[in-house]
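Q: Hi! First time doing this. I have a protein sequence and I read that you can turn it into a structure. Is that right? Here it is:
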Amino acid sequence: MGRADPARPRGTSGRGVLTPVSIRLHWYLPTNGDSREIVGSGDDSQYAVGPTAGRIRPPTIAYLGEIARTAELLGFESVLTPTGTWCEDAWVTTAALTQVTTRLKFLVAFRPGFISPTLAAHQAATFQRISGGRLLLNIVTGGDPVEQARFGDHLSHDERYRRTGEFLDALRGVSNAAQDTTYDLDGQYYQISGARIDYGDWDPPLIFFGGASAAAEEVAAQYVDTYLAWGETPTQIAERLTRLRARATERGRTLQFGIRLHVISRDTSAEAWAHAERLLSAISEERIASAQQVLARTESVGQQRMTALHEGRTANLEISPNLWAGYGLVRGGAGTALVGSHTEVADRIAEYHDLGIDHFILSGQPHVEEAYWFAEGAGAVLRSRGLV
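A: Yes, that's right. Below is the predicted 3D structure, encoded as structure tokens:
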């Protein structure tokens, strides 16, 4: 598969400058621990029946540093951290990891409703200075009402997204205030007076954001740089991107697009699918039922769409060529994996890229070993085609 049509919409930088991009590869940082199984290296621990099974590597700075250095060595642009009560704090953890890496960026996920936009801008500016400009922000509005309540947040689904929009408006306003001006806001959720944050020699970080509801898409079209989707089928993704492009165009903006996927890339297709079956065989029916019961309470439209891909069944999980929905049986969030030979996985990535996806945020367990499997396999195929 060749390059995507260069005339299709491209992304913008944080300053609104049109920038050409090819495929951008990112990896994942499991800040609640790592495992050789699907369970034990994601947000599945909150769905566990009894002790969390499968975790073999705790999220120490030493181990997370090993993953970060591996990602940097293999040429990944950044690593994504999760956010939630089930993992380590993303800001603190990644700030520490800037000191054991030199080039790698950190895509820090955080909830916008729990701190002020001015404080978030201040944290971001400090991070940019201590890291040499290696921060990216992933805004997570939140979709599980039980988890939101743990943080003291009781707004409804659409209210949370309205607050996120106001937060991002303020974050950009505070961050981009000219040196001789300040930023003021008298909003529904934030009242800010006389704010300005100096980033020094660095730009404010680019903003990544996901959400499948109409409320989320409105926020994306108006405020973010890169819209993220979970790994649905190419047909579903194409429909979403068409809609988001139209919404952004109405506002005089363009967006970049990204996708979050797990990956099992092997020398042969048979080896990859055998590994997927091994992962599936290690999950008990009780664990699946427990996870699906918890996921059923979600208000997240994206999570509902992930669940609909498998409907709790363990058969017929290949929902599109090389796209496997097994992860979603026991994990929230990204629930699909690209499974196949290195060439097949590269073909699928190129197919998504032709639709308009530029950022691919990938993961696999354990995260050191699978980074090598991908980078030296499908990643090498993509490089040979001039796509990365």
